[in-house]
Amino acid sequence: MSLKLYCDLMSQPSRALYILLKSIKCNFEPKFVNLRQAEHYTEEYSAINRFQKVPVIDHNGFILTESVAILKYLSRENVIPESLYPKESKAQARVEEFLEWQHAGLRLHCAMYFRVKYLNPVMFGKPADPVSLAGYESRMEAALTEFNDKWLGRGTDFINGNTPTVADLLAACELEQPRMSGYDPSANFKNIQVWWKKVREHFNPYYDEGHVIVNKIIKKNTQVASKI
């Protein structure tokens, strides 16, 4: 089997796929695409992904974009073990229920807060408008409340039962993004705090490996903030 993963570890779904493939001991080739250097806009990469985004897989010449589509495909191809992506119809539907919800339910708000609070000021040298930022933070916290209460507050260790699935890994990687902006999603949400620790432990050491860049940025920002 030949499997290539085009990714950037600053990208949440890229990290999720990278960690997943590492943790299941999949023999894949990571092909890093530096978004900060605009490598996704090159002609070479545009020929691979016409949408100029990450992640992308090339599986024996079959190129596929979009993280959820990739997860579903790799499950059908028996690359992802059944323990992480169930085959049984109802159990699989529960995982996919979360995968469908998380795009607008969690990812959108965490990613936009990160972009407005951290990424845009770094790229354009202008701090975020306080009123606008407060709105993004409020919407993110509403999403975190929903995730904390309605997905995790059901008496199980993970999103869909007492064993982790790809749903947990995808969610955990999304929540790492606002940490680079100085916001810890677990600080005021007990269910997230307990669950997140379990997800990290389950997928380590590859979880930490996939977040090495993220953690360096968090450490650097923390050091800067402590000097102000």
Key traits:
Glutathione S-transferase Yfyf (Class Pi), Chain A, domain 2, four-stranded mixed sheet, 228 residues, globular, Glutaredoxin, 2 domains, alpha+beta, 9 helices
Describe the model.
- The protein is of the alpha+beta class.
- 58% of the residues lie in helices and 7% in strands.
- It folds into 2 domains: 3-76, Glutaredoxin, CATH 3.40.30.10; 89-227, Glutathione S-transferase Yfyf (Class Pi), Chain A, domain 2 (Up-down Bundle), CATH 1.20.1050.10.
- It contains 9 helices and 4 strands, in the order E-H-E-H-E-E-H-H-H-H-H-H-H.
- The chain has a 4-stranded mixed β-sheet with strand order 2-1-3-4, with helices on one face.
- Strand 1 (3-7), helix 1 and strand 2 (29-32) form a beta-alpha-beta unit.
- The N and C termini lie far apart (52 Å).
* Total strand segments: 4
Q: Detail the poorly predicted runs.
A: none
How do the strands of the widest beta sheet line up side by side?
2-1-3-4
CATH class annotation of the largest domain: Mainly Alpha
Distance between the first and last residues' Cα: 52 Å
Q: What's the overall geometry?
A: globular
Radius of gyration: 18 Å
Structure annotation, total helices: 9
Class based on secondary structure composition and strand pairing: alpha+beta
Count structural domains.
2
Q: What is the averaged pLDDT score?
A: 96
Proportion of residues in extended strands: 5-15%
